[in-house]
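Final report, closing paragraph on structural work. Over the funding period we assembled a curated collection of sequence-structure pairs, and we close with a single example.
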Amino acid sequence: MTEVFRTPEERFEGLPDFGFQPRYRQAGGLRLAHLDEGEGSPVVFLHGEPTWSFLWRKVIPPVRDAGYRCVVPDLAGFGRSDKPVQSWYSYDRHTELTVALFEELDLRDATLVAHDWGGPVGLRLAVEHPDRVARIVAMDTGVFTGHQPMSEAWHRFAAFVARTEDLPIGMLVRRGCATDPGDDVAAGYDAPFPERAAKAGAKAFPALIPLSPDAPGAEAGRRTFAALCQDRRPMLLLWGEDDRALPVAAGEALASALGRPPPHRIACAGHYLQEDRGPEIGRLIADWLTAGTA
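Its predicted structure, as stored:
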């Protein structure tokens, strides 16, 4: 049986601008958390490394208030979800548990909004379960095939994660923002991880990116990428202009490969563009959905 860490609820009290109520479900032997706000066509927000649903707190209100149901899961190992403390993590498992969320809530005609590692997970779901995802918003992410180049900033980040036993989660997010969000927000990112054992998921993510064609996950990434090249569902690409780990050039290359328009650049925004420009991003997504693009 997998040993898990469950973050005490009191760790989540008083977080800035985060008054949303969690909901829980069981999947894969784990208790997993998500937010479910508003009514209407579902919009599913997937976070990445090393964040959780807290990342989307400023993006949710404009989308919810435009008449959409915002479903925001915490991936296993993050946020309020259970955190396996062993070498449990894989691309397949994260994808399977995200599919389980869609199935349990019977989400259909959904808009998928994916950031960072939420991209490989969500985009794979979108091509393997096309009946559930009708529109895609991707930001500062990619599809990992084993052939993709990674920036020097990403390699430095991955090396830091590999050699650091007790990851400073809040500090990592702060460094990925164009504007320092401050101590209270950094504490919000630290909240799910009160001890080193809770950080196994955050430690695992960089090493899950396939850096060679025969690495685990690369073949699934190639299938996903090939399908996306033929996919004509509505897609919106958003990118932080000041992202060092996944620079705008990576977003432009992704758009070109998929036959899509270049990403909409978000000025004064880093990798965690939701932190730098959350309300603006929420309005952009809401406007795109309500303008008939969907």
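The CA atoms of residues 164 and 203 lie 9 Å apart. The chain has ten helices and ten strands. We thank the funder for supporting this effort.
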